[in-house]
Amino acid sequence: MGKMSAAPDPVSPELDDVGRPGVRRTLVAEWLWRAFLALLIVFVAFFTAFAGPLLAVMCNSCSGGINNSPFVPAVMVLGWAGVPVIAVATLVGLFLPRGGPRFVGYGLAALAVAEVAMVLLGQIRP
User: Residue 49 in contact with residue 84, Cβ under 8 Å?
Assistant: First the structure.
């Protein structure tokens, strides 16, 4: 058995802040940007989870102002269980080494789809 070398790959070395081969450290600005994106995800998820079901069952011409849709339980489950799962998965993906802002785009798109699905399900009348 030959000696194994722990030297970095010369073709594509990752450099640290000083320029030495090794593990690249995350800069403070990058952490601040990720923290801002995390707060954005939390804000949008709170809006989607709480205002989404209310917007879905709201009806101006209905008695009591609430739509009598057969899909109201599905709207509530999507708002109170589905949206938090989407938000947590997006936050985990944001802080993964190969994740980052790309996952925030996917998460925001998934939250938008959940909002539209809740509103459409809530507007179906028997």
Answer: yes
